[in-house]
Amino acid sequence: MISYVILTHNRPVCLNRTLENLGVLQSHEGEVIVIDNASHAPISVPEVLTNNLPVRYFRNSVNEYAAGRNEGAEQAVYPWLVMLDDDSYPLNVGHLDIIDYIPDDVAAVGADVVLADGKRGYGGLPEVFIGCGVMLRRDVFLSLGGYQNHLEYYAEEYDLCARIIAAGWKIVYDDRFQVQHYMDQSQRDVNRTLSNLTRNNALIMNRYAPDSKRKWCIARELQRYGEISLNEAAANGYNNGVRDFLESLDQYSRTPLSEEHFDRLTGLAQARISLSQEDALKYTEEVSLCEKGKNTWAVEQVLHELGVQLVPDKEHTDVQVIATLSPGKIVDAMADNTHSSQVIIPPVRNVMKPEYCFSA
Known about the structure:
3 domains, Spore Coat Polysaccharide Biosynthesis Protein SpsA, Chain A, globular, four-stranded parallel beta sheet
């Protein structure tokens, strides 16, 4: 039924915890494939978990970063892949409950990624999953070439999701598929992180944005990560990322998406659907924004298209719009009772909950 693919690098303690938690899941048909991305020393794994899931171990001679997952997909024997990091694992078997009901046009199901503090991961978009918790059709993943190794890590999911959308598939989010992510920080360097995020996000916009939007999208990404670098005191990382982006342009050819597909990738299409259906916006001329986050610009654009004025003072508006398109942050915001009357943007397409589905 499922091949769990776990990517690891120099974190045996994290990996052991993930394997232990996989082992306590309800017994089911599947396998676990551990891809060791050239750890300093080979890692020992059990041949079988407590729930009888067999474990296979493969060691890469060099660190292939996110593209190391491709080897796991090649070795897998089941039609669905559950991609995990060595510090993430399913909290339950909710993904097993939905697997037989996933529509034929859906290639990937993003998980509800829960962090150690109980909050959600704020990455991803309506049709961009978080890489440490996603279920993918193996044949689609392989046919599209998997992850691209020149991106190394960070934002590689956006690149893959763009190719999935371009190939005619859909990506959904289902909150019954829950993944715990401990986000081990032992190997994270803030300047390296900012460098990769800056380079990769700008490269992805350069490759997939339609001609009419390319320059604006690149500028927006560079501005966003420039602001983050100031907050994180990571100017060196940001400057390195800008330099690497410019030096990589010739190696990363343009394959722009159609306007329709690009709007799905950025979440703009889903924002249009959800906001246009909100009754509250039909009877008000002014709103304020709260919970700003991923692609707030898309929320602002749709409100402008609907003729709704944005005001900065929340105290003088009856309606607040949750201004993020990250499914995780939407979930947390919906549980927050401190806001006044709200317009909730549900940028999710739950497989078994058609009332929350978007017909993209």
